[in-house]
Amino acid sequence: MANQADPVDIEEFQERFDAIHTNISYALKGKAGELRLALTCMLSEGHLLIDDVPGTGKTSLAKAIASSIEGQMHRIQFTPDLLPTDVTGSMVYNAAEGNFSFYQGPVFANVVLADEINRASPKTQSALLEVMEERQVTVDAICHEVPRPFVVIATQNPVEFDGTYHLPEAQIDRFMMRMTMGYPNHEAEVEIIEDRLLGERPEDLEPVISTSEFQWMIETASSVYVSPSLLDYVVTLTASTRRMEELRLGASPRGSLALVRSGQAWAAGHGRGFVTVDDLKELAPFVLGHRMLLSPEAELQGVSATDLVAQTLAAVPVPTVRN
């Protein structure tokens, strides 16, 4: 991590980031913070889990991102009868040629919306594990790479539990961030209705950059400088969650890496070629919260993972010197 990103590249990164953010804002009113988080997640090559009630713009977010980067978006409606091959694809017999060929499933896209992911069986949910981590699907021992850039945006309805399955910890850990969209304010909701009455849709947004340019942004973000003292700070943060009495499982090393990677993209989006403590503190609730599994006693006491993240941030000393 000794090399710092080229200032010219960082300046260009910020310009493109702001252009994408502004473009998406035309479709999602009053959600500047949430849009910045979603873009940061994707530019860190991470996946996003959104917990929210229906009608708050989760699908519009996926469509707007795909349209803005000239990418392909596929939506998968998860249901109890959905099969793993309905997600990844399968081998299909070609009668004309007398052989089997691979038929790509909807996961082969730049932006994959896994809608109501907790409605599918654990077996089908697990079909996403490999592609989320490795960016590839293995069928009959043959690997098929998905397009790049690639992001899974999964949604859950937090107030409806009939016919749902709990997401396993291994899958939750593969999501870089977890957040909510929330309801728009009054003025934003009026604008949303006006846009829909005029026939304006998120998928109709004009692209502001290409997928290859977005891939360049991902590579540029990964070159943002992270000092050794900040790396030590991140590891101390995540390690401290593993010793908390309120938790039966703390943040994993994947959580440490996710916090650093997202910090790089967050800093570049603000026009900086280096990560600061404030960057990490701002992202920690969204990156670490869903990786902290409460003990039954803590749940009964009404403790939340967000509270414990805040407690951890307050307890761990911040580095005083950037080196």
Spatially, the strands of the biggest sheet line up as 2-5-8-1-9
Structural class: alpha/beta
CATH superfamily of the domain at 29-209: P-loop containing nucleotide triphosphate hydrolases
What characterizes the major β-sheet? 5 strands, parallel
Report helical residue fraction. 40-55%
Question: What proportion strand?
Answer: 5-15%
What is the CA-based Rg, rounded?
20 Å
| Alpha plus pi helix count | 14
How many DSSP E strands?
A: 11
Rounded mean pLDDT score: 89
Encode the helix/strand succession as letters: HHEHEHEEEHHEEEHEHHHEHHEHH
Low-confidence stretches: none
What topology emerges from the helices and strands here?
Elements: H1 7-25, H2 32-43, E1 48-51, H3 58-68, E2 73-77, H4 84-88, E3 89-94, E4 99-104, E5 111-115, H5 122-125, H6 127-134, E6 136-139, E7 142-145, E8 151-156, H7 169-172, E9 177-179, H8 186-197, H9 211-221, H10 228-241, E10 247-249, H11 253-269, H12 277-288, E11 293-294, H13 296-300, H14 305-315
Parallel strand pairs: 1-8, 1-9, 2-5, 5-8
Antiparallel strand pairs: 3-4, 6-7, 10-11
Helix pairs in contact: 1-2, 2-11, 10-11, 11-12, 12-14
Which features characterize this protein?
alpha/beta; 15% strand; Rossmann fold; 323 residues; five-stranded parallel sheet; 45% helix
